[in-house]
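Notes for week 9. Today we move from apo structures to complexes. The key idea is that a small molecule is not decoration. When we ask for a structure prediction with flavin-adenine dinucleotide present, the ligand SMILES becomes part of the input, just like the chain. The input block below holds both the sequence and the ligand string. Read it once before you look at the output, and try to guess where the molecule might sit.
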Amino acid sequence: MADIPPSRSRSTESLFSPGQSTPTSSVDDNSSDVHSHQTTTTTPATTPPNTPLTALTHASLLSPSTSSPTTPLSLLTIGFGPASLAIAIALSDHLTASPSSPSPPVLFLEKQPQFAWHAGMQLSGTHMQISFLKDLATPRDPTSPFSFLNYLFSKGRLQKFINLGTFLPARREYEDYMRWCASHFSRAVRYGAEITRVDAVHNPDTGKVDRFNVHWIDVATGAPGSACARNVVVATGGSPAVPSLFAPFTTGPDARFIHSSQYATSISSLAPALLSPSSPQHLVVVGGGQSAAEIYVDLGIRFPEAKITLLVKDTSLRPSDDSPFVNEIFDPDRVTPTYELGAAERAEKRERDKGTNYGVVRLELLERIYSELYAQEVDEPCEERWRCRVRNSRTVVGVERLQGGGVRLDVVRRGEGEREVLEAGLVVFATGYVRDAHVRILEGTRGLLEAEKAAEAAVVGEVAPAVEAEAPAAEVAEVVPVVEAVPAAEVAAPEAAAPEAVAVETAAETTAETTTAPAPETTETTTTTTTTTTETNAPADATAVEQVKVTVEVTSTPAVFPVGRDYKVQYAPGAVEEGAGVWLQGCNEKTHGLSDTLLSILAHRGGEVVGSIFGPGSGSK
Ligand SMILES: Cc1cc2nc3c(=O)[nH]c(=O)nc-3n(C[C@H](O)[C@H](O)[C@H](O)COP(=O)(O)OP(=O)(O)OC[C@H]3O[C@@H](n4cnc5c(N)ncnc54)[C@H](O)[C@@H]3O)c2cc1C
């Protein structure tokens, strides 16, 4: 056992049930690679442990895992956010409780350079929107060493946290808790690897798929890499939903539009440009959810001389409903009944319950904003002269770039059709997220879906013209839909607890393409600007915001990877061997309910996925 601080040993003794004593294992060989598999492209680099190893993690998850074309990994996850971390914890807890279980080789892949949770929204003063008791382990197993309480204990803050008398830790502290959990798996994680594609590999003997090749690009070097696994979990979270109207303005030398997911990580470098006298001293936030409200408040503090405007599409900012009866919809035992409902009933239920989640703001924050607006009115009865304003029923319908920095927004007032022009030095759009990355990543396995096989058979049966029958997959993909065709507001599923009432005109259909060169699919004004913007190479000046991959709206037919209750993609019967498969996490809200994109049930869900992959009983502890 290596590097176990005495206090942690004590903590595990006191927290563990007898059957779960801290595993003793040799974990001091930090010379090994996370895994040793290599295909034609590259040898995965060593991921050095970033914290001292502790006895919390089962040895097999700290040992070097090996995979090769003949001995694939047992499990590989794409993305190492909270969803995959909960799986790692559930697996570790299971292996700890069942010392005789074979130790599977696993690998967690993450594109960020280290563990980070919504870094762009780590604002001071923000808090969690669920109880810390719903951490990544406790609801599944209150004796797990990965509980938030054990984290506090290990950090020496348990007593003080108790004195705080809260169930809602600061967002920063919760990120630190998850980072602490992640640090225990650092040898099984490869950071800085962005997965681009998963391909199915057929077993020549059975003709069935028995493993998957997962391909990535090393974010730092651009070098390609790959690994082979029997079971792959896609847990990539959301990508910023960028309304097509704004997309042309998010890149280039003078980008003055940023998505909320970039806010905290970009705002400091943007500040000098925003404060320059030629730039309008007016900062605009678009959105009606928690993120929009938080950014509006933060801008007001950060730029005390600037005017701040929050544009809300709805007729009012609205509070989130976290009352106890309603909160039951996030209980783990609600997933199965939701999954068993018909699609129409599920949609109806989602619509009824969305006030818990979408386009709503926590009451305390609303009260703070309201009282600050009121204080301005005491000093100045004319609202137009206020420094900070919340403007309801407003929709942005046009954008134009200003000489000297900044943009001009054409804003329409709902109902009355009244138009006004706003000039802004910065526009932050808190317009939520789309959860469709799996569709692109899994494109190479599409042909295994029943619908695709049927279509293929139909084409063959119809004696289709040779040119069609031979059409390469890439061409087919272009006309193939990538997300369900539902109204944009639904597809652009905003972040869990901070969803947005998007105040920009969006197309009725959906979104799905990720690109850094957005299609010039906008109004006349913006189309012109798009050309200019996309042709310019963004210089690395102080004002350059980190490039965000934008999701532009395109109209296309739907593409769905259907999943079972166990989150396993349902490829055509017989297409994939038993003991192999792909699981989807965090993009199943339509089938599994509103908790799917949240932290609420991750502890349980991690256990369920482990049980589904490694057999019944393996995920229960
Ligand atoms: C500001 C904010 C606050 C929130 N607060 C709460 C809250 O208080 N309570 C709550 O229940 N929910 C909250 N949520 C909802 C949020 O979705 C969940 O908290 C949680 O992040 C979901 O975890 P995940 O692992 O599914 O997705 P993510 O956290 O998005 O993690 C996905 C990971 O996959 C990585 N990734 C993506 N694509 C690739 C790729 N191609 N290759 C490799 N890696 C990739 C990403 O870098 C990321 O680390 C909040 C969301 C936001 C935006």
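The CA atoms of residues 79 and 110 lie 5 Å apart.
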